[in-house]
Structure formats: C-alpha cells, structure tokens
Structure prediction request, 239 residues.
Amino acid sequence: MFGASIGRGAGRIITAMVAALARSSINPNLLTVTGVSTNVLCGLLFGFGYFFWAGIILIVANLFDMLDGQVARLSGRVTRFGGFLDSSLDRLSDMVVFVGLMVFYARDTEFHSTLNVFLAGAALMGSVMVSYASARAESLIPKCDVGFLRRPERVVLFIIGALTTHPESSNPFLNRMPAVLWILAVGSYWTFAHRMYHTWREVKRSEAASTAPAAPTAGGPEPDRRASPQVTPKASASH
Prediction:
C-alpha cells in the first residue's frame, strides 16, 4: 500500500509537470536534447569516479526522457522526426554511461579492473544489439519489446550501482556496481536472444497464416464432393 501511494504521488507530479510544459509551448525535441546532454554529464561523472552524483544526474536525465514523449502527445506535436530523434539519442545516452564506467575502471587507480572494463564493454555491445534487434524486427512484425532487460531496467540498475558506491565502506550491501555490470553483460545478450527468437516465431506464424488455404465464403457454391462413377470393362462370358 505504501509503495502504491508513492507511485500515485509520483504519477501526479509527472502529470502536473507534463501539463505545465505542454502549456508553455516548449519544443519536445528540446527536452530530448536536454536529457541526452545531462546523460553526457553523467558519463563524465562516472569517468572521474563521482558515482553518487552520477546516479543523481542519471535520475534527472531520465526524467527528461519520460517527459518529452508525453509533452509531445499532450501538445499535439508528435512528429516522425521527433520519434527518430528520441530513439537515436537514447542509444547515445546508454553508450556514454558505459564509456564513462570503462574509463573509470581502466584508469591507473586502486579501482582499476580489467574485468570490469570488459564487462562494461560487453554490456555496451549487448545493449546496442538489444535496441537494434527491436528496431529491425519492427520492420517485420508489429512489436518487439520482449525481454526482461530493456532500457528502463538498465537505467534502474545503473542508478542502484551508482548510489550504492561508497568505496570507504565495507558494508556488503554497498559497492554493487561490479554486480550490476555482470547483470547487464549477461542479461543484455539473453534479452537479445529472446528478441531474436520472438521475431523468428512471429515471422513464421505470419508466413504460415499467409500461405494457409482460404476458407470457402459463406453462401458460396460448395465443391462437388460426389465421387465420379468408375467405368469397369465388361467381363467376357466363359463357355
């Protein structure tokens, strides 16, 4: 009940913000660009090791990401280019965060970890493949958003990893960014495989439906199912 109340309260706040921005006639594309610019700042903070502040900035950046589409719909300014811009810059927003983490773990500091650099790089490639698979699949089927590790889930994991990073603490519940990278690296490829399978299944189903014989129309002539009489040669009489 408490969690549902928080959700409703947050929903009201976001709805009020969307309504105010729609009334202000602000261009939704400006919100999209502001969001990706804030994500670039987040990547820089990760690169320099300011994980906590990177997590806070990441929350703000993704608030813009939630607002731009809703403002466009409410103000009646939904455009095909706006959708293209939003989708393209979302990919950039993902990549700058991964690159920031790779830079941090590659630096010659006490936190240097070749394994974490590899995990961040593998997760970066996996997240790109998940997004590409969805975009390419939707040219063949209506929708392909299956899989448990979509972009919102990736963002939440980044925020958890960032806000729990306190190197001076030995608390086992803190400093969870390496675990987050493992989840992102493995989960991205699992989601990619899931979308490949889903697309294959839907395409096969569509092809099967298109090649199925058409059912006879109601009231139309039915095919003649009477067997044609077979003519057999007369047997000659024996004497």
About this structure: Helices lie at 2-23, 28-48, 51-74, 80-106, 114-137, 151-163, 177-211. Confidence is low (pLDDT under 50) at residues 231-239.
